[in-house]
Specification:
about 150 residues, 6-stranded antiparallel β-sheet, 3 helices, about 25% helix, elongated
Length: about 150
């Protein structure tokens, strides 16, 4: 049995039914996207994939987005050498190398990085500083290479 367009025009209940089915399908799709992306509660999972049980309205420094390594290096290169207790006019005189892994200082996850300066006589990199950069983008610490003590710079 064929149904013609004329039959659809003469049967408004069929058109309303089709419209409702399409609308229901679209709403289900949107709901599934929200369910799988976690957009309903706007929370990010922690490093173990678990969601925080904190009450609404509380915001911890650790909830800020984790900084990407490239962004960290760009941020450090934008600092004045004197801010990192280094000599010179520009961080372009230095090479910055992030290290793998994390450390925790004052309850903040931090990435460690080393700063090197090219030795003009030998053409090799000479380490001039060891630092920790908090992943909430607020603090840079300097590590004393002899004692291992950590000092807050910024």
């Amino acid at each position: 049995m064929k149904m013609r367009t004329q039959d659809l025009k003469s049967n408004p209940n069929k058109r309303i039914g089709d419209f409702l089915l399409i609308t229901l399908f679209l709403l289900m799709c949107i709901g599934m996207v929200c369910l799988f992306s976690g957009c309903s509660d706007n929370k990010e999972p922690d490093s173990e994939g678990q969601f925080s049980q904190e009450e609404e309205g509380q915001k911890d420094d650790l909830e800020e987005p984790v900084i990407a390594v490239e962004t960290m290096v760009d941020y450090i290169q934008a600092q004045k050498p004197s801010d990192l207790e280094l000599e010179g006019d520009s961080m372009k005189e230095y090479e910055i190398y992030p290290l793998e892994g994390q450390s925790e200082i004052d309850g903040l996850p931090c990435r460690q990085f080393h700063v090197y300066k090219v030795d003009e006589d030998t053409g090799t990199n000479e380490i001039v500083g060891e630092y920790l950069f908090s992943e909430n983008r607020r603090t840079i610490y300097k590590i004393d290479s002899e004692t291992g003590d950590v000092k807050k710079l910024l």
